[in-house]
Design brief:
Elements (H helix, E strand, L loop, with lengths): L39 E4 L8 E5 L2 E6 L2 H10 L5 H5 L3 H12 L5 H13 L13 H10 L5 H20 L26 H10 L2 H10 L5 H5 L10 E4 L9 E4 L5 H9 L16 H16 L8 H12 L4 H8 L4 H8 L4 H13 L2
Antiparallel strand pairs: 1-2, 2-3, 4-5
Helix pairs in contact: 4-6, 7-8, 8-12
């Protein structure tokens, strides 16, 4: 063998070179010793989910799955005493929590958590370990008028922060998990009334025709604007999107809406049925620049374009259309979606149903 330094030939198995004295076996590189007062990281024996312990001044500050995570926890303590750590405020916990969590979520998720953090402004300067369920609940209750999904995000933030604080052994109980959200009351979806439909029919403009086409087929706005002219067949169209049940389905056109489809078919300038439409062709632009201004002009209460789909479903059910047929037309894989979301019952129909029930006795 040759010496690894001077390259002289030496006996096989030599520990040192007889010529230059260099040790032939490389010694494993030792980890650099942490500076005094900055803490230490060591691995515990046995099978553990978090085997790496981080300690400072002989006080365990937490247990971690990896050595890197333990070292990062110590680094976050640089310049801070153990007392400072255990007295971390709500805002300080948030800053340390987001340093880890924000690396794994989208910009939209980050923005929603930042908004949720602002909601808890009254708690920002309070010691996190002293906060209890009642403190979190008070803030949640003050914002109970917001949507259920928004308030759920508020709870999600404090729950995630509390989990982090438990991991770091700042607290022993996740009090945020006991917070109760306001009841999720589902609002009745809006539909176009018969008077609204008469106003649209009387308007006669192209935007009104497009809205009536949606009402008379139950199509989604994106489905109608992307419908190829070749898939228009006079009394029905073949189209759809979103799910397997919704794609390439036969969609009958109500008799009163067939003239509007023919109108655009005769004026098509491209491959799409609405290629000749003089207004906005991108659904979002149509909604902002054509649809809502039209409703305002006609004195129709604002409702989303999806209300046309709800309107079609409710009118179909009132006319006696079998549930399984309506499900196929709307492109739902599950009829519960059709019945629970898209079908509406008005007051007159409820009263009529009760009166008919009395007559049967």
């Amino acid at each position: 063998m040759n010496c690894r330094k001077c390259r002289a030939e030496i006996p096989d198995g030599s520990v040192f070179c007889m010529f230059c004295g260099t040790r032939q076996a490389r010694e494993p590189r030792r980890a650099l010793k942490r500076a005094n007062g900055t803490g230490t990281v060591y691995k515990l024996q046995g099978r553990r989910k978090r085997p790496w312990a981080a300690a400072k001044n002989k006080v365990i500050i937490g247990y971690y799955e990896t050595k890197t995570a333990a070292l990062e926890a110590l680094n976050r303590l640089t310049g801070r005493s153990i007392e400072d750590r255990y007295n971390m405020t709500f805002a300080e916990v948030f800053e340390d929590w987001k340093a880890e969590h924000y690396r794994e979520i989208t910009s939209a998720g980050i923005a929603s958590y930042d908004r949720a953090f602002d909601v808890f402004q009254a708690l920002h300067r309070k010691k996190f370990r002293e906060l209890k369920t009642a403190d979190f609940q008070t803030v949640i209750d003050q914002h109970s008028d917001r949507s259920h999904s928004t308030v759920s995000k508020h709870k999600q933030l404090i729950t995630q922060m509390s989990k982090w604080a438990m991991r770091e052994e700042l607290i022993t109980t996740n009090f945020a998990s006991f917070v109760k959200l306001p009841e999720n009351v589902k609002k009745e979806k809006e539909i176009f009334t018969e008077e609204d439909i008469r106003k649209l029919e009387a308007d006669g403009g192209e935007a009104a025709k497009v809205v009536l086409m949606l009402i008379d087929t139950g199509m989604r706005i994106g489905e109608l604007f992307s419908l190829p002219l070749a898939d228009y067949h006079g009394t029905y169209v073949i189209g759809g999107e979103k799910t397997d049940a919704g794609r390439n389905r036969v969609i009958p056109i109500r008799p009163e809406g067939r003239a509007y489809f023919q109108y655009f078919a005769d004026r098509a300038t491209g491959e799409l049925l609405l290629s000749g439409y003089a207004g906005q062709h991108i659904p979002n632009n149509f909604r902002k620049r054509d649809y809502y201004p039209l409703l305002d002009k006609l004195g129709i209460q604002r409702k989303t374009p999806h209300a046309t789909r709800h309107t079609y479903a409710s009118r179909a059910r009132k006319s006696g259309m079998p549930p399984e047929i309506l499900q196929k037309i709307l492109g739902h894989a599950d009829y519960n979606t059709t019945a629970n979301i898209y079908v509406h019952t008005d007051i007159e129909e409820l009263l009529k149903a009760v009166e008919n029930g009395e007559d049967c006795k």
